[in-house]
Design goal:
Blueprint: E1 4-7, E2 14-15, H1 17-31, H2 38-44, H3 49-56, H4 63-74, E3 82-83, H5 87-96, E4 100-105, H6 109-118, E5 126-129, H7 136-146, E6 154-158, H8 161-170, E7 173-177, H9 184-189, E8 194-196, H10 199-212
Parallel strand pairs: 1-4, 1-6, 4-5, 6-7, 7-8
Antiparallel strand pairs: 2-3
C-alpha cells in the first residue's frame, strides 16, 4: 500500500516558470548562454536535458554551476512564486486522508519552506534538497533508508523526464505531471507508471493503486 508521497517542487507544486526564465536570463547574460523567452520554453519542453543544453549553448559540466546560480538568484524572487491552481486543495486533501507528505527537489530547503509558508502549505513532514541534478535517485534511496520504508510504500510525483529516470533507478513508482516544465510527449518517452493531466488526477491515481494493492 502506498502511504508516503514524495513530491518534486518546481513545476509540480510551484508555478515558477516565469520566475525561472527571468532568473535564467540574468545568468545567461553573464555566461553568454542563449537567452529565453516564453515561446522558446514550449519547444525546450519537448527536448531531453542534453538537447536543451545544446540549444542553449550550455555544456553538461556547466549544469551544476547553473543550478547553483539559479537557486541563489531564485531566493530574491520567492515572493513571485505561486502554487499551481488546484494543487493546494489536492495537498490538503492528501494530508487530511493521512498520507505522509515529503519533498525532494533540486531547489534549496529554505526557498521551498518560504514558498510553502507563504501559501499556507506548511504540511510536509520533510524537505530534502537534492544537490546532484543527475543523482536524484540517490536522494530517493537515502530517503527510503532513513525512513525505514519499502519501495512499494512510496510514490514520487514529478514533472521531468529525469524524475522518471531517477525513480526507475530507485525502483519506485512515479506519477508524472503534465503542467510542469516538460511536455507530456517527452514524459511518455520515459514510460512513467502514471500520467496526471490535472492535479486532481493525483488523488484518483493513488486511490486506484491502493484499491488494487491494499
Amino acid at each position: 500500500m502506498v502511504n508516503t508521497l514524495v513530491f518534486d517542487f518546481d513545476g509540480t507544486i510551484a508555478e515558477s516558470l516565469g520566475v525561472g526564465i527571468d532568473v535564467y536570463n540574468e545568468i545567461a547574460e553573464e555566461y553568454n548562454f542563449k537567452k529565453l523567452n516564453p515561446s522558446d520554453f514550449a519547444k525546450l519542453g519537448k527536448l531531453p536535458i542534453a538537447k536543451k543544453c545544446n540549444v542553449l549553448g550550455i555544456s553538461l559540466r556547466q549544469i551544476p554551476l547553473l543550478v547553483h546560480k539559479l537557486n541563489e538568484k531564485f531566493k530574491d524572487n520567492v515572493s513571485r512564486v505561486k502554487v499551481f491552481d488546484k494543487m493546494k486543495e489536492v495537498l490538503y486533501t492528501l494530508e487530511k486522508e493521512k498520507y505522509s507528505l515529503h519533498i525532494i527537489s533540486s531547489n534549496t530547503e529554505n526557498t521551498i519552506k518560504e514558498v510553502l509558508q507563504k501559501n499556507n502549505l506548511d504540511i510536509f513532514e520533510s524537505i530534502y534538497s537534492s544537490r546532484n541534478i543527475f543523482g536524484k535517485h540517490h536522494s530517493i534511496n537515502d530517503f527510503i533508508k532513513k525512513n525505514g520504508l519499502h519501495n512499494d510504500e512510496i510514490i514520487y510525483i514529478g514533472d521531468e523526464l529525469r524524475d522518471i529516470e531517477a525513480c526507475k533507478k530507485a525502483k519506485v513508482k512515479i506519477i508524472s505531471v503534465t503542467w510542469g516544465f516538460e511536455s507530456a510527449d517527452l514524459l511518455l518517452t520515459g514510460n512513467p507508471d502514471f500520467l496526471a493531466k490535472d492535479p486532481e488526477d493525483i488523488i484518483r491515481i493513488i486511490k486506484t493503486i491502493n484499491t488494487v494493492n491494499p
